[in-house]
Amino acid sequence: MSGSNLTILIIDESPERALLIEAALQEAGHRHIRIVSILNGLVRQIEDIAPDVIIMDLGNPNRDFLEHMFRLSKAIQKPVAMFVDQSSEQAMLDAIEAGVSAYVVDGLKRERIKAILDLAIMRFRAFEKLRQERDDALQALDERKIIDRAKGIIMRQRKLDEAEAYELLRKAAMTQGRRIGQIADAIVQSDSILQEKPS
Amino acid sequence: MIRITAGFLPLLDASILIAAHEKGFAEEQGIDLKLVREMSWANIRDRVSVGQFDVAHMLAPLPIAQNLGLSPLAVEMIAPFALGLGGNAITVSNAVYTALQSGNAAINGDAKLAGLCFRQLVEQRKVSGLPLLTLAVVHSFSAHAYELRYWLAASGVNPQSDVSITIVPPGLMADALALGAIDGFCVGEPWNSVAVAMGAGHVLTTKSSIWRSSPEKVLGLTRQWAEHNPELLDQLLLALHRSAVWCANAENVDELAGILTRSLYLDVPLEHLYHGLHGEVGHRAEGNAFLQFYHNAANFPWQSHALWFYTQMVRWHHLDLSLEGASRAKATYRPDIYRRALQSAGIALPGASSKVEGALLSPTHVPAQGGQLVLGPDGFFDGVAFDPDALQSYIEASPFYDALHKF
């Protein structure tokens, strides 16, 4: 691959995502990749690394500081531009929607950078999807527990068996147009209020 | 209803945008104003540039810097409305404050006295071989960065070599001060009051003491959006104007504070918001001179403000002085759009688009269209006036300006 002599710096507070991007770039033949997650002493690190391309997470609250550092750094004497091509609005939009900001040291060939940016965008999206799936799974787990507790309450109060209790929940959800988890949550909460001993 | 998406950072001077939504001023104009809180000015700039945000709460020098090629993006921006005047302060750590007080005069919040004490401390530290003090601002191209440097230089401290200036996001300032990572900062409210409440430092002086009625945040947007949506932009400015009048009314302070404290907006306890809203930051009781939402033509985009920022960019070697650069900086501010949008609002519109900053020593009637307009006092603490028609001589006379500087 032609991109292998470029030095790419990844600044990311999420080490998992940084590794994901690094792996993708390595696969594409890039051998000079550096990851920084702690900003202490960053100026000297940037001088040492002398990156051609910097990839950063848009969620990083220190972006204003980092851009200031790029401006001060002797290693990045040429102007730093974001994204490959100022005229390609779609590329900029894609990157920002994926949560990526990429800084390119002026003078580099556009097509070489485009490939790097595209890889970073893909990995950011993949990471976001993983995170979303994990959040969904955790939420589903929580919901499962709440539904079990609501079933227990219904079984106790209505003297029903588990299948009947679940059927009651399901019907209530259908008629109210809400999720079973939401109905279960309401039952658990009202039960806990009613169970409270008067003080 | 037409949706307009606006980005903001959690600061008191986002009030006009927030109240425009919360108090229904936007809705009255047929606008569904969607507010999105952001965590950096870089994100605000990027999201406006690519069209994810239609408009945003922006540092006044940010669109100017972008139009002058100082930003990593090359999308042209404009500023047709100022989101108020003032609102910042300079806060220092307890250690620095104690050292400053050991001098001969008691700190009272006055910029001149604070500067004198600060200079003495910097000189003492130099003699004792102590390291440079580190001061933080929120962005390289911010009113904070320029007013802090102005105050230091006019006080005899060279901001390029006598102190170290770094960048910290507003919400992290108080922590950075408490941890000793920085010795002081210049930031908008409520972040000075938060640092004081944490016991991390003391307010030294205020933006309004350095430069009365000085520019701070603007409504920033791309020129392209403004040209594609002229009527919608006029409606938005009308909504913001009504919101500004509401925010400036002392009777509404409690309600405004109650809105701002919510987790959706500033997410800062109520008591920290009142200092800025009442104009009682540090030692000074400035009242509504601390942060002006409406009075004093606080929303008018004075091109002299844009040009002052431009002189400071040249002064501190962000760029070379050029006629083209000056006219580009000036054209970033759009008083023509402000007048077009508000001609039907029944308010007095300034007749001029620029003024000599520091010329008004007391409230003065100025020529205006459609009513009476009183401006001032304005001006810098060192008594130097800025004439927007004499940029070069102003820059050359600035303390610590190095005309031979090599880029």
List low-confidence stretches of chain B.
Answer: none
Mean pLDDT of chain A: 82
Structure summary, number of beta strands of chain A: 5
**Can you name the CATH architecture of the largest domain in chain B?**
3-Layer(aba) Sandwich
N- to C-terminal distance of chain B:
50 Å
Helical coverage of chain B, percent range:
25-40%
Helical amount of chain A: 55-70%
- What is the CA-based Rg of chain B, rounded? 20 Å
How do the SSEs of chain A run, as a string of H and E?
A: EHEHEHEHEHHH
Strand neighbour order, sheet with most strands of chain B: 2-1-3-12-4
Which fold name is given in CATH as the topology of the largest domain in chain A? D-Maltodextrin-Binding Protein, domain 2
Descriptive overview:
The complex is a heterodimer of chains A (199) and B (407). By secondary structure, chain A is of the alpha/beta class. Chain A has 2 domains: 2-132, D-Maltodextrin-Binding Protein, domain 2 (3-Layer(aba) Sandwich); 135-195, Arc Repressor Mutant, subunit A (Orthogonal Bundle), CATH 1.10.10.10. Chain A has helices spanning 15-27, 42-49, 63-72, 89-98, 110-158, 162-176, 180-195, and strands at residues 7-11, 32-36, 53-57, 80-82, 100-105. A 5-stranded mixed sheet of chain A has the order 2-1-3-5-4, with helices on both faces. In chain A, strand 1, helix 1 and strand 2 (32-36) form a beta-alpha-beta unit. The model of chain A has no long low-confidence stretch (mean pLDDT 82). Chain B has 2 domains: 2-86 and 215-338, D-Maltodextrin-Binding Protein, domain 2 (3-Layer(aba) Sandwich); 88-212, 3-Layer(aba) Sandwich (D-Maltodextrin-Binding Protein, domain 2). Chain B has helices spanning 15-22, 25-28, 41-49, 61-67, 94-101, 111-127, 143-154, 173-178, 191-197, 207-210, 223-228, 230-248, 253-260, 270-278, 303-315, 323-332, 335-342, 391-396, and strands at 2-8, 31-37, 55-59, 77-82, 85-86, 88-93, 133-137, 163-167, 184-188, 201-206, 211-212, 217-222, 291-292, 349-350, 364-366, 368-369, 373-375, 379-380. Chains A and B meet through helix 3, strand 4 and helix 4 of A and helix 3 of B.
